Amino acid sequence: MDSDSEVLLTRALNATRTTYQVSYAALRILADRLPKAASSDFLPRLLHRHLMAAESWRYRRFRSYKGINSRGSVDYRECIAPSALTAVAEAVILRKLSESSAFAVNPHVYSYLWPRSSRGGRNFQFFADGYHRRNADISAILDTEPQDVAFITDIRAFYPSVDRNTVHRALAGRVNGAPDLGNQAERDAILHFFSDVLRQSPGGIPVGPESGHVLGHLALEVRQ
Hints:
Number of strands: 2
Distance between the termini: 40 Å
Oligomer: single chain
Strand order of the largest sheet: 1-2
């Protein structure tokens, strides 16, 4: 993986491969048409111009199977998926946030951690790895302290339950207080991108876009 364009495309492809096949197919076509020079940064430069121009980003709504509820009927998640170009723009934003000290992930968080390398092929480390590591850590503590009890719970419909204004204020405070994210125009572009994401959801944090995981981390910190 030699160029920034290839890194960003790979991350966008991995983000859409299992969630929205239309965007995934469009990204495959885009990848085939990019300049083949290994040093090409065509895509990052193009998207930077779009971000700075406060473009509106495109999403499509879809439903994802969640499971069978207690009444015996099927439950679905209401999701949104980014267009091909929006998915790559999201990869640009997430990489920038991953490099900022203001968005370092809380050490108590196990899933949706930033990639280990700036050249890695995903916006986040694979979430299941964090899940298994969490279980291993809990088991190790219980082996050492057998009198302890582990209480594990979950927040039902967490993302849709989050107050959008609250999480956006938390994001704005974090972005505007981070000089390593660039000048004010660049920080405004990041906030505009996330505002577009939040507007796509009927309530809370939308399910589907990988940028939602950043908002999820912020929402948990606000609730502490």
